[in-house]
Specification:
Order of helices and strands: HHHHEHHEEHEEHEHEHEHEHEHEE
Number of helices: 13
Strand order of the largest sheet: 2-1-3-4-5-11
Helix content: 40-55%
Shape: elongated
Radius of gyration: 23 Å
Distance between the termini: 68 Å
Length: 331
Amino acid sequence: MTVKDVARRAGVSITAVSHALNGKGTLSAATREHIRAVADAMGYEADALARGLRRSTMGAVGLLLRSLDALGDYTPAGVDVFEKFVGAAASQALARGLSLMLVPDLTRAPVPPPAFSMDGYIVTNPHVDDPVVALLEKRSIPYVTYGRAPGRPDFPYWACEDDTASAQQVLAHLETAGAREIVLVQGTDPNSWNLVHEDVYRAWCARRATTPRLYELAEGAGVEGGVELAARIAADGVPDAVFCLTGRHAAGVQRGLRACGVDVPGRTLVATASDSEHARGAQPAISAVVLNPVDSAAALLDILQGLIAGERPEAPRVTKSLFRVRESTRR
């Protein structure tokens, strides 16, 4: 497969193909997209090094952070869970003699030349019908997912903390503290993190014949989005507790409730499913689930190395998280 083949199939010049695949030149958006679509359909890899390396192992794996791809921000303020996971995955990979490469969304140009040369990939929090997952499968590149691949019950090669158990633990803690009506604030990304927590919450409400109160807030809305949402929650009726899936949302909701005159934890309890700098630094500090990036990264690399070796590794793997109770849920 050469650039000439792509040019012939697309009906353009070799230069046009080069410019389209490398993000150069003054091609129209339509022409650029047409050329890329043709190259992708033909399975063309622009980089000669990548073509050669795909024939043998590279000793390197890629890491795709789909939540940050969707957020459009790879350094969100106060969110340290991704940094912890990246650090854990990197040290675990080095201990196994592997290199780890952080790769942005593979469906968006420009794609780093070695991206399709990786021996395999860890994909964190893939979405429903995730195009990146589809691309990896099309190119027959082994991959594992941090969290279930939603809509893919037949895909076993994943590992993560037991989100179901931790969500149940948080809800049970809030109930023990006196909460009978609990609000759930979830994100908008269509990943298993949001979907699993919603399922657990709805089941909790059903068992208690309580009407669910769910609010969706885009992950990128951050603390200020939580502050604005708190006014809506209070206007709809102050609940006994609010369970936010992200730490930034929880910090914002708590701040907004207090601005509305709602005492936390005296009147309403606040907890989050993901610890963060904002949750720890809030006043009062917010009870949070502390994830387990070290064990989760190790499990993912175990599975991925087995797939790369052509084996059928034991999967899925579930690790344990820790629920840390702080002042926001102590009465």
